[in-house]
Amino acid sequence: MSKRHRAAALLVTASCMTLLVVSCDDDRFPHQYPKTDVNVSLEQVLHDHWIIIPKNAQDVLYSANSELEGYPLLLEFKAACSEMRVFSKQNKLTRLPWEKASTTTVAASAQELGWTHRAGDYGFKRDPGATSKRVSVLVSPKGSVCHVWLDSWS
User: Fold this and answer.
1) How many whole angstroms separate alpha carbon 12 and alpha carbon 71?
2) Which of 28, 54, 59, 93 lies at a CB distance of 3.0 to 4.6 Å from 88, suitable for a disulfide?
């Protein structure tokens, strides 16, 4: 992993995952990762980062804090693998060869969350051409269900 990718991975991981706090259930947003400091709803963060997730997405979890520089998002969900083509088109994503996908910031974040590489895993990216948000996606198919990790930042 290059120094640039490592630094970006550390920034995203640090800003999204190390904001661990003990929170009251009343203060939690639906779908936020447990014990993370989230100050924006899933609907708002998806809007702000120009992300559309499949309607049938399950096990949705996210971490986002609009007060941090770059307003990072870490998102995880499961959906039918047949939805990935539509998902990539809706989000203006470009498929990456595994060699590049494995060095993305989202791969580092997914590893922190317990992901281990399996044959068939692949990735996507969106450069900030159409928007000001960079997006990295890691997809891990298991049968007809794909486990998806996404990170986005400016």
Assistant:
1) 10
2) 93
The 10s digit of each residue's pLDDT in 68-124 is 888 999 999 999 999 999 999 999 999 998 889 999 889 999 999 989 998 999 999
Residue 21 has pLDDT above 60, yes or no: no
Amino acid at 106: V
Residue 144 burial by Cβ neighbours in a 10 Å radius (0-12, 13-18, 19+): exposed
Per-residue tokens: 53: 């997730």
Distance of alpha carbon 96 from the chain centroid: 15
CA distance 11 to 6: 9
Distance between CA atoms of 29 and 52, rounded to whole angstroms?
A: 19
